[in-house]
Specification:
Elements lengths: L3 H11 L4 E2 L2 E11 L4 E11 L8 E4 L3 H4 L5 E3 L3 E6 L3 E8 L3 E13 L2 H12 L1
Length: 126
């Protein structure tokens, strides 16, 4: 099985996502699948290296996602990742209250807006 870093690298390369200082930021459609619920929402997505020198963490930046009681951060320690060529990135994991979930990130191949990129830079370096 490919490592998490390999899955992220293949995903980034597949969709030609451009780097931003310390990570990758892009717009995407997010599809959450729970046992009895399916949630689809658009969000900016920021991927960065937190636990190693390679990208290993995904952040969903749309605040609406929190209103659904869904997590907004995913990493290799708590989730499994699978790059599906020409489709997206599949994330699978377990939530304490809601149980098993899958989430698919479908990139729209557009970068995050400039304001978001500035906020990321400020938080990262302050």
């Amino acid at each position: 099985m490919k490592t998490c870093a390999t899955q992220f690298a293949a995903f980034i390369d597949d969709f030609k996502l451009s780097d931003h200082e310390s990570g990758v930021c892009f717009n995407a459609v997010i599809n959450f699948n729970l046992l009895k619920q399916n949630i689809c929402v658009e969000s900016e997505v920021y991927m960065e290296a937190v636990f190693s020198n390679k990208i290993d963490t995904v952040h969903l930046l749309n605040p609406l996602i929190g209103a659904y009681k869904m997590p907004v951060q995913f990493n290799e320690g708590n989730n499994r990742f699978l790059h599906i060529e020409n489709t997206g990135l599949l994330v699978a994991g377990e939530l304490p209250v809601l149980g098993t979930f899958t989430m698919t990130i479908f990139p729209k191949n557009t970068p995050c807006n400039v304001r978001t990129l500035r906020e990321i830079s400020c938080k990262k370096y302050n």
